[in-house]
Design goal:
29% of the residues lie in helices and 28% in strands. It has 379 residues and is α/β, with parallel strands linked by helices.
């Protein structure tokens, strides 16, 4: 069975629609075609030449990366320079590249949420709220004989999820009327005769990003030539999305205990600012999130855990009276590759698709320890 790039990446987009990405970002399919066939997929943070060579060596057709291989507009495609050499290799080999960057960072299941889970935080919420997804009620009228078939078709595409429950619906019996006109080929009734039909009113809740596929499933399973349905926007909106997360340590940890937890997760982590005697609330942001320091302070966090902390961020933390932990850009994002692997493998198994997924890890880190004494290392 042939599987397309579009089918594979739609699993990522269901959770992290492209519209969530920051305006400055460049996400989606960056090299290749959505129609290209896929058998093997490489999951990587960065599309380096090493990653591309590894993908080709194991026979991958698609790379799904966190960081875009094309970030700024290209003014030239120089194959004697690193980026041009990578792009040439991708195009010549027919290897597609897809990026899920800030859209994945901001989605409910994204980078910061998982970082909060790794630290054992409870009562986790979005640190910088940037929007909320919509929910719709889908109401369809269907003969009793096809009620279950239509419902299962919609549920298979993501309809009927409320909290931790799936396959949620409501249905009630009633009567529908219609008159087929000339040219119609009705499932029930006759042309130019008013039909009275026993039908079921079936209602389900659908997240906005799943609505197109749910409607497609409905139409495919519905026996009528023209299915009657309503789509109603709900005021009880969906999941909040944004940058970073904040949560609580229950029970609170003394600083030595908390720093030990950090050291086990992020051996190269560094700390700046003022370390509290006890840690109650922690803000996190995978990648580079030091700009969220003031917001973290406003929400009563004693610590912000992120990456790419600079000199001025350290001064800000000191002035605010809180600690900022630089756990490393790579280290605070690398675990998302395993999340993608689990998500995509589950999808492949559920659809019985012949797909393989591989996680790429660089042979060495970008930064090496110079073995210098660091007075700001976590103690």
């Amino acid at each position: 069975m042939s599987v397309s790039v579009k089918q594979v990446v739609s699993v990522i987009e269901d959770l992290a629609p492209l519209r969530l990405a920051e305006e400055w970002d460049n996400v989606g399919l960056l090299v290749g075609s959505y129609g290209n066939s896929v058998n093997r997929v490489l999951l990587a943070l960065d599309v380096t030449e090493e990653a591309v060579d590894w993908a080709l060596a194991v026979g991958c057709d698609l790379i799904i990366a966190h960081h875009p291989v094309i970030f700024r507009p290209l003014k030239a495609l120089r194959t004697d320079l690193p980026q041009g050499r990578i792009l040439e290799k991708l195009i010549r080999s027919g290897l597609s590249v897809y990026a899920a960057h800030t859209n994945w960072d901001k989605c409910h299941s994204g980078t910061s949420r998982r970082l909060a889970e790794l630290l054992g935080l409870s009562n986790v919420s979005v640190l910088k709220t940037m929007g909320q997804s919509k929910n719709y009620k889908l109401v369809v009228f269907v003969p009793e004989s096809h009620r279950d078939a239509v419902f299962q078709a919609m549920a298979a595409e993501g309809a009927g999820h409320i909290g931790d429950y799936s396959h949620c619906s409501f249905y009630a019996q009633g009567k529908g009327t219609f008159m087929p006109r000339a040219g119609a080929q009705p499932y029930l009734g006759r042309v130019d005769e008013l039909a009275h039909v026993e039908e079921v009113r079936l209602e389900v809740v659908v997240p906005e990003q799943k609505l197109p596929m749910v409607l497609k499933g409905l139409r495919a399973a519905h026996p009528y030539e023209e299915a009657a349905y309503d789509v109603i926007e709900l005021h009880n909106a969906g999941l909040v999305y944004g940058l970073g997360c904040i949560g609580e340590l229950t029970p609170p940890l003394a600083w030595p205990e908390f720093s030990s937890l950090l050291r086990n997760l992020f051996p190269a982590a560094r700390v700046a600012g003022r370390m509290p005697a006890e840690v109650h609330k922690v803000a996190v942001c995978g990648g580079a999130g030091a700009e969220l320091l003031h917001l973290a302070h406003a929400t009563k966090a004693e610590v912000l855990v992120t990456g790419d902390v600079g000199h001025h961020h350290a001064l800000e933390a000191e002035a605010l009276g809180m600690a900022v932990v630089d756990a490393g850009h790579y280290a605070t994002e690398a675990f998302l590759l395993q999340d993608w692997h689990t998500l995509l493998t589950k999808f492949a198994h559920s659809k019985q698709l012949p797909l393989e997924f591989h996680i790429f890890s660089p042979k060495r880190s970008l930064f090496s320890d110079l073995h210098l004494t660091r007075t700001n290392a976590i103690m």
